[in-house]
Amino acid sequence: FFETFVGPEDHWLPPDNYQEEPIAVVAHRTSPTNMGLALLSNLSACDFGYISVGQFIERTANALRTMAGMERHRGHFYNWYDTQSLKPLLPTYVSSVDSGNLNASLLTLRAGLLTLPDEKLAGPRLFDGLRDTLLVLSAAVGTPKPAALVRMEEDMKSAKTSASDSTLWATRESLDRLAGYAAEMVNNLEAAPDGDALRWARAFSTQCQAALDELTLGAPWVLLPSALTEPPLLNHVPTLRQSASLANELLPQIRKQAALCGSTEAREELDAFAELIIESSFRAGERITVLEDLALRSGELARPMEWEFLYDRTRHLLAIGYNVSEGRLDGSYYDLLASEARLTTFVAIAQGQLPQESWFALGRLLTIAGGEPTLLSWSGSMFEYLMPLLVMPTYEHTLLHHTCQAAVARQIDYGKKRGVPWGISESAYNMIDGHLNYQYTAFGVPGLGLKRGLAGDLVVAPYASVLALMVAPEEAVQNLETLDSRGFQGRYGFYEAIDYTPTHLPHGQSNAVVRSFMAHHQGMSLLSLAYLMLDRPMQKRFESDPAFQATMLLLQERLPKATAFYSHTAGISEAHSAVHPVEEKPIRVYTTPDTPVPEVQLLSNGRYHVMITNAGGGYSRWKDVAVTRWREDTTCDNWGAFCYIRDTANGIFWSTAHQPTLKASQQYEAIFSEGRAEFRRRDEDLDTHTEIAVSPEDDIELRRITITNHSKTRRTIDVTSYAEVVLAPPAGDALHPAFSNLFVQTEILRQQGAILATRRPRSSDEQTPWMFHAMSVYGADMGEMSYETDRMRFIGRGNTLSSPEAMRDLSPLSGSEGPVLDPIVAIRCQITLDPEKSATVNVVTGVGETRDVCASLMAKYQDRYFADRVFELAWTHSQVLLRQINATEADAQLYGRLAASVIYANSSLRAGPGALVQNRRGQSALWGYAISGDLPIVLLQIEDPANISLVRQLVQAHAYWRLKGLAVDLVIWNEDHAGYRQLLHEQIMGLIAAGTEANVTDRPGGIFVRPSDQISKEDRVLFQTVARAIITDRKGPLTDQLKQRRATEGMLPAPMSTRTTKHNLPEIAAKPRQDLMFGNGLGGFTPDGREYVISTARGQVTPAPWVNVLANPNFGTVVSENGAAYTWSENAHEFRLTPWYNDPVSDSSGEAFYIRDEERGHF
After folding, report:
1. Nearest Cα to 379, choosing from 324, 339, 423, 432?
2. pLDDT exceeds cutoff 50 at 513
3. What DSSP letter does each residue of 178-233 carry, written as one string?
């Protein structure tokens, strides 16, 4: 982690975190704690032998040089800095504990720097580090092992055995061999450049080379023949200090020996040898100087920190921090000994800046954890108890030692009770902000923390278990092995956290892995491992500081023999209640598609919007453009994008939802949860599960269809998608769809399994979007795909989507493309499923501003990884949206239910018939109130200021709808005519101003607040007439008013007859009359020329509607050969009495006569 992310791009400072998902991003900011732990991580890596002393010096020098030039306040580093600009982040703030952590780290680092000159240049620890890397490399390579790897392992065993007493030349030869094998491994693995094995082979090679460099820097004579082994001092691996003094010790002997040499060649060799000794001593002396200088600079960064301005002398406590921007000390204080603040307090006391009273002022509230007295912390986190142990020593039989042991025991016990791996601490969790970054907070164990509500969350942080290695190593190792076995590790070690909190998870998911890595958690983990495996190196360095030595007595406080224990029964009972299953988060499940009004789900990423009904209808829109055709039809609800399933053996077909085939299934469910819609049904022993989501990353919708064969035979299934293409504003398409269709052009891309569509521009400056529709199949054998973009060919003249020609015909789709008159996108694939096997079909529809954008999206979502993560990202995005408007998922489901009345006009929440018949005004009368009337209107009438919560709900609902792409005018009538009317108005306006809707007041699609006494009676009737939903505070809470809607919907008249009705009458083909003039097989003129006679039947239809126009100057109707008709008064376009669908394919009608045989039930 540190080698990857701590480098020149961030001025050698650690970026706060790196997250892999939902988007890969590095947080280029850092804190004093991050900086301190990164410095000690470098030192710890050197202790482990993972980096050489030279590499450690380079990384430390770069970091300290950067830190010395950063802006500070009274010696303190600010809480946050931008690592790329090095500017403090606003507001500038000094955090007491952050400063304490950095101060302690700097002084520990100083002690470590001063001991390095006495370490061997290539001692046993270097081979320990190589061995660790080799073990990881071996695991990454797997079996069978390459010959080079086997030789490396054998050589490493012998090198490890003799490392402690190895000669200089033996060490060099061993490193040479290992470096050679590593180079061979790298060459062998280059064919898989992205593999872990290659990455670790390169790491091992780099380590070997660094060790050789270290050896030759301190003992350059090692490159000479090993025959020069006199004097014996040169034959052993020296320390840096020994190397620095060699010139003084050996030069006189070498020169004396050279003078006695009779051979010129021998004398020259000894002279060259002497030069190497001089060079070695010089370089070693230089390095010692550098180390001492770095130690000095570490101390100089720590010493200037002033603590007085952060200290309250009346309380003897440190404040949380100091807001430099405002010049204000925080009003809260660190007042518990069981917290990370004890390290800060100890350091400040040791430096003589705080009195010892501040240590004893820290609270020592005791509780019983696991039957043992334990100090209480604030949040009950592992971090609070164990973080100071990373550098501070601990003493057996003391209060702090006992507390740490009991806290870990309580953590272990709590994990067992909750049935999850243990280890809870402050960490990121599975909630995302508006920038798709994980959120971070303190989690803890009930019974250890004073904070209430700890049992409400269950987030396990693996680094907490690594910290516990310092206290309970065996239990911690077992827990880490459990976490590892469940796949909770990534490229840089264990992931940040595993979130088990139900309210943080998508429906049906037991946990979510927070795939990020925090710099300070990585650093703490490394230091904790060093504590256990290297025998407390940081603690020994901390203890070596004279100021700390003089203060160590504070850490040796004994357990009190008698005391009052803090009762924590509330938190404990809360924890026990949390052990039981938490109630499922709100979702809506409909087991029938035949609700009186379509129930809707809104999906959106802010640009691409999808509405789905519980029957499967709905729309897809991109910004203000309709992607697919949709009409508001409360009764039929048969518009949208659909998918057909057909059993090729018997020709039976149905749809993945109820629409458009209208065929009843054995089981049916429509499930609406945040971020997705789902449909489940069973037909012909085939289970179909459809999931629909909109990607937050791209302007696409994904419909994932999983088909499972529960029969005992192999089945061949046709899956056929269908959607009508618009790519134009909805209003223009509704006005004249046939004209709108003329400008759409389609193109089939067979290699990509997709169809492209665009609208030809009507002017040179018109920017027209592109649409794509693609299908891919996983988990089953698939036949060749076929395509259709001509609606006439798909549906067939006179048919409807409930039984289109393409589904009755077993042949592939025709493959028509180009400037078709009635454009659609339809793709068919044939899959074969064995018994109890499943296949997944992904249908992706998306929009881009250019063809290239669509091509890129098509390529991206052919990759199953990107397609699958759409659903996770969609849920995450929905959580961000809810946080943005401060709503819960229960609120969102409520607003979704209300949206059904907004989208589909119905009587349930509208004004009664008595009010409607009183209206005498038209849409233009709304304009005086700055309301166009083009958008749906929701009217809220509020009279009592005590019911302001209803306003809050409707304003929140408006924000939810707006963010989901549903434009609504919310009209609020202030009906308080008492003396407090102005107060209520101010409450309403203040509530709006404080939220996300402040900038949409008195604007189209916004909020309009009007005093009702300033609206005329006629206009009041008009508003009540046009409002899709009327909510009033006189009818109780919003939930009650929606329940009332349901009760109203259920009031249906009793059926008139119980006879079974049948509509599948046998059809008899009509025989064309033989006496017709100019007959064409379908019709002709009668001999007198006064009539045109048409004969039709199934399979015997006219190529287009043949119509008769009946009209006088003021009234008229058009009737087609199919019986379809529409009627108008005065103007055929503006004043239609019945609807005209302008559909030459199905020729639908809003006028009909039904004839039923009451005896047989035929109609």
Report:
1. 339
2. yes
3. HHHHHHHHHHHHTTSTTSHHHHHHHHHHHHHHHHHHHHHHH-GGGGS-TT---SGG
Position 564 pLDDT exceeds 50? no
DSSP 8-state assignment for residue 144:
S
Distance of CA 161 to the CA centre of its chain: 49
Do the beta carbons of residue 1118 and residue 1126 sit within 8 Å? yes
Task: Give dist(CA 1149, CA 1120) in Å, integer.
Answer: 10
Mean pLDDT, rounded, for 84-109: 95
What pLDDT shows up at residue 196? Answer: 83
User: Do 38 and 20 touch, CB atoms closer than 8 A?
Assistant: no
Computed over every residue of the chain, the mean pLDDT equals 88
Strands 459-460 and 438-441: unpaired
Question: Does domain 1-119+310-356+517-550 fall into CATH 1.50.10.140?
Answer: yes
What's the one-letter identity of residue 19? Q
Whose CA is closest to 363, among 218, 531, 553, 563? 563
Q: What is the CATH number of domain 588-883?
A: 2.70.98.40
> For 27-58, b where at least 16 C-beta lie within 10 A, e where not — what string?
bbbbbbbbbbbbbbbbbbbbbbbbbbbbbbbe
- Which residue type occupies 977? H
State how far the Cα of 971 lies from the Cα of 1007, in Å rounded to an integer: 6
Residue 1102 near residue 797 (C-beta atoms within 8 A) = yes
H/E stretch holding 633? none
Give the residue carrying structure tokens 């923390």.
Answer: 449
What's the whole-number mean pLDDT along residues 724-746?
A: 93
Tell me the HSE value of 1034 on the side-chain side, using a 13 A CA sphere.
Answer: 7
How do 625-628 and 642-647 pair as beta strands? unpaired
Q: Which long-range contacts (CB under 8 A, 24 or more apart) does 194-201 make?
A: 195/140, 196/140, 196/491, 197/137, 197/140, 197/141, 197/142, 199/140, 200/133, 200/136, 200/137, 200/140, 201/137
Place of tokens 């409930």: 802
Q: Compute the distance between CA of residue 1149 and CA of residue 1143 in angstroms, rounded to an integer.
A: 10
Can you tell me the distance from the alpha carbon of 538 to that of 111, in angstroms, rounded to the nearest whole number? 9
Tell me which residue has tokens 């100019």: 1078
**494 and 466 in contact (C-beta within 8 Å)?**
yes
CA–CA gap between residue 973 and residue 931 (Å, rounded): 14
pLDDT for 181 equals 86
Output the 3-class SS for 690-702: EEEEECCCCCEEE
Q: What is the 3-state secondary structure (H, E, C) of 339-397?
A: CCHHHHHHHHHHCCCCCCHHHHCCECCEEEECCEEEECECCCCHHHHHHHHHCCCCCCC
Pairing, β 667-673 against β 781-782: unpaired
Percent of the chain scoring above 70 in pLDDT: 91
Q: Report the CATH architecture of 900-1049.
A: 3-Layer(aba) Sandwich (3.40)
Q: Going by DSSP bridges, is the β-strand pair 667-673/653-655 parallel, antiparallel, or unpaired?
A: unpaired
CA dihedral 545, 547, 552, 554 (to 10 degrees): -150
Q: How many residues does the chain have?
A: 1163
Could you tell me the two tokens for 400?
A: 């702090």
> 898 - beta bridge partners?
none
Rounded to 10 deg, the angle between the 32-48 and 537-544 helix axes is 110
Copy the structure tokens of residue 893: 């489901």
Instruction: Report pLDDT digits (tens) over 583-623.
Output: 334 789 999 999 999 999 999 999 999 999 999 999 999 99
Give domain limits for the chain.
Answer: 1-119+310-356+517-550, 123-222, 364-514+553-580, 588-883, 900-1049, 1060-1163
H, E, C per residue of 708-751: EECCCCCEEEEEEEEEEEEEECHHHHHHCHHHHHCCEEEEEECC
Phi, psi torsion values for 407, nearest 5 degrees: -65, -40
